[in-house]
Amino acid sequence: MMSKTAPVRKNEQRQLTFIDMTHEGSGVAKLDGYPIFVPNTLPGEVADVKIIFVKKNFAIGKLSNLIEVSPNRVEPPCEVYHQCGGCQLQHLDYASQLVMKQNQVKNVMHKVAHLPDIDVNPTIGMEHPWRYRNKVQIPVGEKNGELITGFYRKKSHDIIEGMERCIITDEVNDEMVNGVRDVANRVGIRAYDEKIHKGTLRHIVVRRGKQTNQVMLVLVTRTKEMPYKKQFIDGILSLYPEVNSIMQNVNGERTNVILGRQTFCLYGDDYIYDTIGDVKFAISAKSFYQVNPDQTKVLYDEALRMAQLTGSETVIDAYCGIGTISLFLAQQAKKVYGVEIVPEAIDDAKKNAEINQLSNTEFVVGQAEKVMPWWTSQGLRPDVIVVDPPRKGCEEALLEAMVTMGPERIVYVSCNPATLARDLKYLTEHSYEVKEIQPVDMFPQTSHVETICLLTRKL
């Protein structure tokens, strides 16, 4: 029975035994059923903890001293791991990370979807779970008149100084960020100051094609006018002559959103290219393209396997983006229809279909929950629907549209197990049953897990 008042007070020191982990990677201890969440602790550990936040139903603590250490604990190889917050699990060995993510999916299937008897497959991990990110976005600041770059400290906008590398991102991207900062500093480009909304350079974004080695640099600036533009471009090209594209993105808003609406090409091409399997993709400065291409191939292979395509099927890809899943499906389907609300993404999807000479695709701009009923009225009857929504999951109107269309199979790709479970509950209450659930580790060292699920229509 949970206590009516919290059994701990702020700033109190307590010795706690940890029994579980949250989906965000914090250890969980309980006092008379009252949960206390503490980052950087693991199940089975005993630790001295300082209570730093107290609510009626839970508290948050800060690790002071480990007394009993889990055999699954490892030393984080990142020098700024405890400051950064970008990774949450570097202190947990990789095999245990995969088990944790499988359990995370199991728990929500039981508690939210009410599917306790459904097996969740072991998480598919990476052989080398480091240096996998093909894109990095680094804030730019200033100290003592010099530009500095680095991720923000946890829950702040203070840049971690002296951060020269991120060990989950491509080494070329690391090197490029440091080089861009040094060139910008040398030619006199100043950093954006969010407090007074002055200055120029807000973020440095680097994208690299894993298979092609093509590199795009994106400078996010407050204004379209960029001082010392020619000197900057010349400096970058002398340092990195292999760069394929230098873009400028303008974001003049007071916002935490990184990219603004306008993008201009300063040098080279508007796109770089990469391949996943046999499919080639054009990637622009604002394209959504999975940051871990090795695991994306694994994920899409699983989607293809679950879709069970023979060449005669009609498929709908809701939330199709730039056509990444659509084009994989189009290799084995009769026809693939993609729908996406972002017009630029649909432009990219059409371009990518053309690049790959896949003429059995049709891409439409709009909300899937509105486009799909229109397709139904036109007589479209898909055999398979693939859906890959954002973290908030599917709108109920979209789930209703999928059920109305009545495909034999639904392949649901999710980046959020909680909203996946919620949506599966709806679908299992409306003529579908879950056949398989497969977690894939797209983001090693972090608490995020991608899950792919196969549902079939009940007879």
Taking all residues together, what is the mean pLDDT?
94
Compute the CA-based radius of gyration: 24 Å
Oligomeric state of the chains? single chain
Strand order of the largest sheet: 16-15-14-17-18-20-19
**Approximate shape:** globular
- Cα(first) to Cα(last) distance is 44 Å
Q: Roughly how much helix do the residues carry, as a percent range?
A: 25-40%
SSE pattern: EEEEEHHEEHEEHEEEEHEHEHEHEHEHEE
Number of helices: 10
Total number of beta strands = 20
Q: Which structural class do the helices and strands define?
A: alpha/beta
Percentage beta strand: 25-35%
Give the uncertain stretches in residue-range form: none
Structure in words:
This protein is α/β, with parallel strands linked by helices and 459 residues long. Helix content is 25%, strand content 29%. The chain is built from 10 helices and 20 strands. A 7-stranded mixed sheet has the order 16-15-14-17-18-20-19, with helices on both faces. Helix 7 links the parallel strand 15 and strand 16. It is globular, with a radius of gyration of 24 Å. The two termini are 44 Å apart. The model has no long low-confidence stretch (mean pLDDT 94).
Write out key terms for the chains shown.
459 residues; single chain; alpha/beta; 25% helix
Topology:
Elements: E1 13-21, E2 27-31, E3 34-38, E4 46-54, E5 59-68, H1 81-84, H2 94-111, E6 135-143, E7 146-149, H3 171-187, E8 201-208, E9 215-221, H4 229-239, E10 245-250, E11 262-268, E12 272-276, E13 279-283, H5 293-307, E14 314-318, H6 324-330, E15 335-340, H7 343-355, E16 361-365, H8 368-377, E17 384-387, H9 396-405, E18 409-414, H10 417-428, E19 432-440, E20 450-457
